[in-house]
Amino acid sequence: MRAARRCSLRLLLLCATFLMLMATASRAGAQVSAAISGVVTDPSGATMSAATVTAKNLETGAVRTTATDSAGRYRLLELPVGAYEVTVGKDGFHTTVRHGIHLVVGQQAKLDFSLQVGAVTEQVTVTGEISPVNAPCSSQ
Hints:
Blueprint: H1 2-30, E1 33-41, E2 52-57, E3 63-67, E4 73-80, E5 82-89, E6 96-103, E7 108-110, E8 113-114
Parallel strand pairs: 1-7, 1-8
Antiparallel strand pairs: 1-4, 2-3, 2-5, 5-6
């Protein structure tokens, strides 16, 4: 009986140690990233829903994209630390790019954007058939 109790106590202690190590490892893993969040508005200060927000890691080339919610808010979570370029755009507005963003471990960067009304972009699409070229033959 005493040996069984001792074995159960050791097993319980081993399980508790394992759980503590797992909890520590998960917290340590969460600390190697950062986040960017903010609000996107128009020139009048009204929030903009459905604007596209893209963060590009300049060291790895990795890109993360999200859209603003109905209150103009966005969040890009668990970004690897490093240098970033953040681009925000929406149809009918100029695209805004912010450079020089350097995220460090655990940072919760807040980047708000105000998009300016953009001119209508014209796009010319040419479609048609190629007509044969009739070049006169010259003989010398």
